[in-house]
Amino acid sequence: MRDVAVIGVGINKWGELWDKSLRDVFVEPALKAIDDAGVDHIDAMYVGCMSSGLFVAQEHLSSLLTDYLGMGPIPCCRVESACASGGLAFRQAYIDVASGANDIVLAGGVEKMTDVDGGGATYALATAADQEYEAFNGVTFPGLYALMATAHMHKYGTTREQLAHVAVKNHANGVLNPEAQFPMEVTVEQVLNSVLVADPLRLLDCSPITDGAAAVILCPLDMAKKIAKNGAAKIVASGHSTDTIAFHSRKDLTEIASTQRAAEKAYKMAGVGPNDIDFAEVHDCFTIAEICVTEALGFFEKGHGGKAAEAGETARDGKMPINPSGGLKSKGHPVGATGIAQIHEVVQQLRGNAGKRQLKNPKRGLAQNMGGSGGSSLVHILEAI
Ligand code: COA
Fold first, then answer.
1. Angle between the 287-296 and 257-270 helix axes, to the nearest 10 degrees?
2. In the chain, N or C: fewer CB atoms in 10 Å?
3. Do residue 301 and residue 224 come from a single domain?
4. Rounded to whole angstroms, what are the CA distances from 249 to 49, 82, 245, 293, 337?
5. Measuring CA to CA, how many Å separate 1 from each of 31, 96, 385?
6. Which ligand 1 atom sits closest to the C-alpha of 204?
7. Ligand 1 atom 12 nearest Cα
8. Cβ neighbours of residue 282 under 8 Å, at least 6 residues apart?
């Protein structure tokens, strides 16, 4: 296996992009990534997208997107693993380059979610849950994460205020991110008083419905050292794991076992542990998710994720900065694009290009992306070079 690096990144302003179609939303950041990398071609492409069929009635993205990017007839593969589609596309691109099959590969992610109404979006997202046991009985994603939150509060005494602190911190970070969908400060009181969505989760505990895309360019490390126009970051680990989709088959609703296993694999591959990570982008689709994930990654003891958020340990100036980009909560969550946007942020931070939200000289960053309520997880670790 060859060592692999990321040499280019691109993203567009996320939000309700009604004046653009899915292909336009994708092509803009893909061209930015190609330009940032300083390459004149790509050899292959992987694109994460959860549900373009339900959101915009368009499948066959592999051909559509290579064509509109002007890169046909290169090979392209659309990758689906619910909200972890982007993370999985990145892993497939990494394996492709590491194996020697291709040299310069684009990993992208895209989702156009606002062309359907709220009910349509909720239906499309719920197809990532167990249809027969969960969705058919009326459970939505806010409902599933509300069950997780209730279990965490019951088992560990996690408080409503601690959940709110996750949203307050991520919105504060998002204010510094020009691409974020909701770059506004919120207070604990505003979170606690926002509209109830699924008890105990309120509007400001939820990631939004978003149109957006992101792209990154990978190549062998040796080549990166010669050609990277704006610097590079080395991929030192890729961990992947699945879990049962249905909650009733899980032993403990407070644990995200797929993330825990993907992280164990990634730490082993990189030869590091949680204490060696300088910052992380994690999948905060709901505030409780960030709490469970930071515990699964080993940053905090089981049951202590909420306390850590409340104490400011996950703030940009805390001992373990989490989601300096603003996370899914503030930046937005175009589901298939999220995993790639996390890599975008990790690379920008490691190259010192993160603008106003730049952390102090980070050397090693982690990205954790998960599908649905944790039925699949990807953990990647990257280092500055
Ligand atoms: N955070 C902050 N503000 C939000 C928001 C969010 N997540 N979602 C919507 N808003 C704002 C809108 O901008 C709008 O503000 P305005 O009245 O000032 O214009 C207002 O809240 C209402 O927006 P609307 O689009 O009508 O909200 P909605 O009730 O249709 O949807 C949720 C809100 C929370 C139900 C929806 O965003 C949702 O389902 N989120 C979860 C997505 C999800 O499950 N993703 C997969 C995770 S695994």
1. 40
2. N
3. no
4. 27, 19, 8, 19, 28
5. 28, 10, 19
6. 1
7. 208
8. 289, 290, 293, 294, 297, 322, 323, 327, 342, 367, 368
Cα dihedral: 89, 329, 381, 275 (round 10): -160
- For 185, 277, 293, 300, 355, the CA distances from 319, given in Å and listed in that order, are 22, 10, 16, 11, 20
Give the pLDDT score at 326: 98
Q: Which helix (H) or strand (E) holds 216?
A: strand 211-220
Is 104 in the same domain as 252?
Answer: no
**Residues near ligand 1 (Cβ within 6 A):** 83, 118, 122, 125, 141-142, 182, 197, 203-204, 206-209, 285, 333, 335, 372
Determine the distance separating the centroid of ligand 1 and the alpha carbon of 141, expressed in angstroms: 13
Q: Which domain holds residue 349?
A: 129-208+237-384
The residue nearest atom 22 of ligand 1, judged by CA position, is 203
Task: Categorize the per-residue pLDDT at 371 as very low, low, confident or very high, splitting at 50, 70 and 90.
Answer: very high
**76-104 pLDDT tens trace:** 999 999 999 999 999 999 999 999 999 99
Q: Are 326 and 281 in contact (CB under 8 A)?
A: no
Q: How far is the CA of 334 from the centre of ligand 1 (A)?
A: 13
83 is known as an active-site residue: yes
Question: What DSSP element (H or E) covers 234?
Answer: strand 233-242
Domain count, the chain: 2
Residue whose C-alpha is closest to residue 264's, from 219, 286, 297: 297
CATH code: domain of residue 296? 3.40.47.10
Same domain, 203 and 214: no
Nearest-atom index, ligand 1, CA of 289 = 48
Run of H or E including 383: strand 376-384
Dump pLDDT digits (tens) for 135-178: 999 999 999 999 999 999 999 999 999 999 999 999 999 999 99
Residues 293 and 194 grouped into a single domain: yes
Burial of 250-269, coded b for 16+ CB within 10 Å and e otherwise, reads beebbbbbbbbbbbbebbeb
Q: Give the tokens for residue 201.
A: 């989760």
3-state secondary structure of 232: coil
Ligand 1 centroid to residue 244 C-alpha, Å? 28
Show which of 177, 199, 233 is a domain's final residue.
Answer: 233
Instruction: Give the span between the Cα atoms of 36 and 56, in whole angstroms.
Output: 29
